[in-house]
Structure formats: structure tokens, C-alpha cells
Amino acid sequence: MPIVDPRTGEPLTGEPATQEAPATADNSQGAELIIDVGRDNIQQILEFSMQVPVLLDCWAPWCEPCKNLMPILEKLTIEYQGAFILAKLNIDDNQEIAAQLGVRSVPDVKLISQGGLVDHFQGALPEKQIREWLERYFPAPEDAPASLEDQAAEALEAGDPTTARTLYEELVQQNPEHIPYQVALARALVAQGNAAEARTLLDNLPPEDRDAPAARGVRASIEFGEEAPSHEELAALSERDDSEAHFKRALRRVADGDYEAGLEALLGLMKRDRAYGDDAARKTLLRVFDALGADHPLTVTYRRKLFALLY
């Protein structure tokens, strides 16, 4: 099968280009940007890498992670519009080539330029990580869409858990072994009001991930929703100024996602009545920190305020 230069549309000869080629190719040239490689054309691919970098995707038909990774690589190849081509090597059909390339497990993605190996990664990395890897070597396209991961996080932050759930479900399907996506999906489910479904998802995680900080944080969010008074109960407390009323109002704010107001109310209760509920305000502050995560700006700010109050 002849190899076509995606920038010029001319058959590749293996000789150095005699004139400067266009920097990009039209998206309609996806057929030239993505090719299958084997014994008949591997040498042409190596020669082609003298002119245009080649992303070599080593895969196998029995490899589920390979099947999840390949559509992401194809999408990014077209998006980068000729900055590199994607060559797909079925290692089952080309065992000798795979051995020469040092492929020991799949998926194995190798970046080849000037006939030599520049870098590689193994495993079905999430799209965002692949983008970051590519950006070490190629400028990101100016009109590149946000990754699904960024879109999902933005939807959740904007108060659109339904969209966030849909996107995280797609990410989990693409990357079934990437635990952070499953935890993020559980968080979107909680925001959507599906706490029971979120708890089931967390319960099915591997033990080491089930009790990790990220999963504990989502569990804490579920528990706040269960512990907080209903809005009807809250209305009945509106005239009360005792510690119990302040604590329950703080819980409701946290459960509703108004974390800053809830944290401020809990800190105020500590100043007012440290002994209430066997130090319930301080213990709840720590649980909110757990729910938000150690790097969240509110966690950083209110840990500092808690430390100042205690010491």
C-alpha cells in the first residue's frame, strides 16, 4: 500500500522533501493521516518519519484497553491536522516487527521522528493525559476542543450534574480502569440526587481505592445529605439561636453545596460553643475538608482559620 504524505497528497518516496510543505492538512484528509502498518510498509513509515513524525499505535484484537485507546488517538490525529500521522500495528499479525520494536505489552504508543524513537507510553491513558503528552512535542491546535474530562469538570462546577454525569459515564466507558473517573462520576451522581447509586459505585471500587481520600470525600458528601435537616425542618429552626440550630443550619448549607457558608457557620459555632456535641463543629469541619479534597481553595483557607482558632 503506498503511503501518502498528508501535507502534500503526493506518494511518499522516502526521499527528503525538496520544498517546504504546508503546515497542516484539512480534516477531510483523515484517511491519509491514519494508516495500518505491517511488513509491506513498515520501512516506508520509518522513511516517512524523516519528514513527518509518526505516532505508532501497537495494539492487539484481544486487548480491550487498545480498543478504548484507538478512537482517542484517531480523534487527536485528525485534530492535529497533519502534525503527525497515526500508524496502527496489529502485533498479532506482525509479531516479528513487534519484537524488533521491543513491544512487551499493549497498548504501546511510540513517537518516531527522523527514523528514531523519541518517546512512548504504555496503557490506555485518559485523553487529557495524552493531550499533555503530545503537547511536549507539538503545539496544541488553536481551535482544539476541551477534553471530555475538562468539559465534565466544568459542567459539575457550573451546577449541571446531568451533563457531568453523561460525560463521566463516557469517560468511564473509555477508561474502565481509571479510578478517578469513577469517583468523579459518583460525585456527579450525588449532585444529581442519586446518592444510593453513587454509594454502590464507590462500594464496588477496589479496596485500596474505596478508602482513599477522593472516595472518602464523596462518601462524606452523601452522609451530609443524609444528616442534614430537611428544608421544612430548617424552617422550624429559623427563630432559634441555640447551638443545635446553628449546627443544623451549617449542615444544610454543606449538604446543599454552599460550602463556604457552611464552613463559616461551623467555625463560628466553634468560637461560640466549642463543647457542643462533643466538639461536633470541629469534627464536621474536618469532614468537609475531606469532602472537598486537600487542594481545594476552601480547604486551604479554612484549615488555616481552624489552626489559628485552635492555637
TrEMBL record:
<keyword id="KW-0676">Redox-active center</keyword>
<dbReference type="GO" id="GO:0015035">
    <property type="term" value="F:protein-disulfide reductase activity"/>
</dbReference>
<dbReference type="Pfam" id="PF14559">
    <property type="entry name" value="TPR_19"/>
</dbReference>
<dbReference type="Pfam" id="PF00085">
    <property type="entry name" value="Thioredoxin"/>
</dbReference>
<dbReference type="Pfam" id="PF14561">
    <property type="entry name" value="TPR_20"/>
</dbReference>
<dbReference type="InterPro" id="IPR013766">
    <property type="entry name" value="Thioredoxin_domain"/>
</dbReference>
<dbReference type="InterPro" id="IPR017937">
    <property type="entry name" value="Thioredoxin_CS"/>
</dbReference>
<dbReference type="InterPro" id="IPR036249">
    <property type="entry name" value="Thioredoxin-like_sf"/>
</dbReference>
<keyword id="KW-1015">Disulfide bond</keyword>
<protein>
    <submittedName>
        <fullName>Co-chaperone YbbN</fullName>
    </submittedName>
</protein>
<dbReference type="GO" id="GO:0006950">
    <property type="term" value="P:response to stress"/>
</dbReference>
<feature type="domain" description="Thioredoxin">
    <location>
        <begin position="11"/>
        <end position="139"/>
    </location>
</feature>
<keyword id="KW-0249">Electron transport</keyword>
<dbReference type="InterPro" id="IPR011990">
    <property type="entry name" value="TPR-like_helical_dom_sf"/>
</dbReference>
<feature type="region of interest" description="Disordered">
    <location>
        <begin position="1"/>
        <end position="26"/>
    </location>
</feature>
<dbReference type="GO" id="GO:0005737">
    <property type="term" value="C:cytoplasm"/>
</dbReference>
<keyword id="KW-0813">Transport</keyword>
